[in-house]
Design a protein that fits this description.
The longest helix is centred in the last third of the chain and has 20 residues. With 137 residues, this protein is of the alpha/beta class. The protein has five helices and five strands; from the N terminus they run E-H-E-H-E-H-E-H-E-H.
Amino acid sequence: MSMNDVTILIVDDEATNLSILQILLGSDYRTKAAISGARALEIANTNPQPDLILLDIMMPDMDGFAILEQLKTNPDTSDIPVIFLTSSEDDKDLEKGLLMGAADYLTKPIKPAVLEMRLKNQLLLKHARDLQPRFTL
């Protein structure tokens, strides 16, 4: 798996945050951006699907928890790893996100080296899952 073949969907209602993350990740990954929950869900359901989603929690139209819930209940998007990126340091938000199925949780401001390691870890886990045969009973 080449990292240049990986697409990351960045979801944040702040255009500045989107731009910074696209610049930060753009040399190693293909990026797509969404400034709303509705647009994020639309992109997640479009082929080719993103390999990973970076998702802000606090957004005006639909918060990150609502987006994650829709992603996880849709069989077409349920396997896409989601990493929450948020300015909230509330342990209840962290616990809720992880219980709902988020793969990871990072608080802003983001440390680029930490983000890169978390991305690589989740992408390697996804790649390993994708290689496993699916069994049906």
